[in-house]
Amino acid sequence: MTLAVFCFAACQTVNPLGVTYTGEDAHTTVSLEMTNGETVEVTKVSKGPLGLYTRMVLVEEDNLYDPFFPVLGPDSVAQFYIGGETVERIGMDNFEPIIKREMADATLIVDNLGREGFRYENLWSMVYYYNRLKTESLVEPTVSN
Description:
The chain starts with 5 loop residues before the first strand and ends in a 10-residue tail after the last helix. A hairpin with a 3-residue loop joins strand 7 (about 75-85) and strand 8 (about 85-90). The radius of gyration is 16 Å and the shape is globular. It is built from three helices and eight strands, in the order ββββββββααα. The chain has helices at about 95-100, 105-110, 125-135; strands at about 5, 15, 20, 30-35, 40-45, 50-60, 75-85, 85-90.
């Protein structure tokens, strides 16, 4: 999956899912200190209480490289980091537990994890929805199965 981020005059960023983030803190580069002491330069792509950050890394650095099965696709992939007070890396392997913990009060998201629209590839739009829910005092819709 190739991610494209564009910046316009008012620092407005658009992601491939069609979600638009605006504001001075969207699309800014920040340094995150990880629990292992490593400092990572990332780009903030969300605005609100739950931060979403991204950076592009070489496939070899993302533990996706296997010399016996060379990668024929892109040479770099996106890594995502998420959090409010503490920030951690989020990937396909730890997506559900982190979302359940970080968005525990957003029952629409937590109850539908794994379904269409609530998967790892929808991370950006879920964070956007959660931040709007918290900052704009929206009432979460109830959905019956």
